[in-house]
Structure formats: structure tokens, C-alpha cells
Amino acid sequence: VAAKLSWVRSFGVGAVLGIPLWFWLPAWDTVLGEKRLAELCATEAGIKVIQIVELPKEQFDSSGLPIFFEPVARSREPGRTDALFGPDYRYAVSAEHVWGAGPASHAWIQRRRQALYLRNDDQLLAESINFFFQRGGPPSLGHSTLEHCALKETRVERHSAGALARAVFRQSPDKAEGKR
Questions:
Q1: pLDDT tens digits, the chain, 180 residues: what are they?
Q2: How many CB atoms within 10 Å of residue 75?
Q3: Which residues does residue 109 pair with via DSSP β-bridges, in sequence order?
Q4: Rounded to an integer, what distance in angstroms lies between the CA atom of residue 57 and that of residue 135?
Q5: How does strand 46-49 pair with strand 89-99?
Q6: Dihedral over alpha carbons 110, 116, 117, 118 (to 10 degrees)
Q7: I need a surface site. Which of 6, 100, 144, 154 has the fewest CB within 10 A?
Q8: H helices within the chain, ranges in order?
Q9: Which residues pair with 108 in a beta bridge?
């Protein structure tokens, strides 16, 4: 009887210690990732405009976007994001893992850069940097969550090609041809 109680007692202690570890071990790097995400968001994230392009009023639609901007170009031409801004501009997206082991680990941070260039001389007009944090979690609770930097801009499209278009293209005060 004493041997049976010893086994139950040791199983109970193991369960009390083991169950919390089962939930905590897969997510231990989440705390470190949250701290690193906050640092990256504070120091690197945001939209940086290098050069504003002025266009005549008739070059804009009713929402304030240039008429040559095609936000649906990606769905019509998979993999071709350069068609978003017409023949004069090039839009590029890149992503790299900057913390964690990448998608195979429980928690990782990815840096996503969107940039808009003049096509003729490849001059950078603006870039948007955002960080995505894939949070680790207990294996028994299903999927993990994805967070990103919450920037000062209040538009829904704050990290989109549309946000870059609004930041770079402005209506010129006169109705002359567009200036760069």
C-alpha cells in the first residue's frame, strides 16, 4: 500500500510541475520576442519618404490615390507587384527573418520592407518597414498568433502599397505637368 501511495504521490508532484512546463516551455521565447519587437517597432518601423512626387489634380481619383495606382494588380498577375504603380514606378517587397529561427521555431520576427522606386533610374522614393512577430504557444491550444508594429498612422492601409502612394504622390498647387 505504501508503494502505491508513493507512486501516486510522485505522479501528483510530477503532474503539478510537468503540466505548467508543458505550457511554458514552447512559449518561453515569446517574452524575449515581445521585448525585441517593441525595440524594433520603436527604432526602425514606419514609412520614410525620400522624395515627394507632385502630380496634377486630374491624376488623382476620388479617394486621393493616383489614377495609375492599381491595388488589385497582384491578384491579376500573381507575383508581379511591380505593376501596381504603372510603367514609371517600381514597387518592391522583401522579407527577412531578423530574430528566432524562422517559421520552424515557436517564435520569430520577420522584417518586411516595401519600397517605391522611379523605374528609369531606380531612385528610392519611399519605403515602409514593418515587423511581424509570430508568437509561440502551447502545442495543445491550437494555432499561435501573429502581431505587428502599430504605427502612428491611423489608416487601415498603414503598411500597404496604398499608404506608400498617399505618402509619395501629392497634388501640385498648379495644374502643370507632374514634377519630381
A1: 455 556 555 556 666 666 665 555 556 677 788 899 999 999 999 899 999 999 999 999 988 889 988 876 554 566 666 668 888 999 888 999 898 865 556 788 999 999 999 999 999 999 999 998 887 655 445 555 778 886 544 444 555 788 889 999 999 986 545 455
A2: 7
A3: 99, 133
A4: 45
A5: unpaired
A6: 170
A7: 154
A8: 2-24, 28-43, 73-76, 161-168
A9: 134
Which residues have a Cβ under 8 Å from the Cβ of 133 and sit 6 or more positions away?
33, 34, 37, 107, 108, 109, 146, 147, 148
Cα separation, 106 vs 100, in Å, equals 8
Dihedral angle, C-alpha 155, 160, 161, 166, nearest 10 °? 20
Q: Which amino acid is at 154?
A: T
Q: Could you tell me the pTM of the whole model?
A: 0.71
Q: How far apart are CA 47 and CA 93, in angstroms?
A: 14
- Hey, what's the cell of 58? 486630374
Task: Name residue, grid cell 515557436.
Answer: 106
- Identity at 152, one-letter amino acid code: K
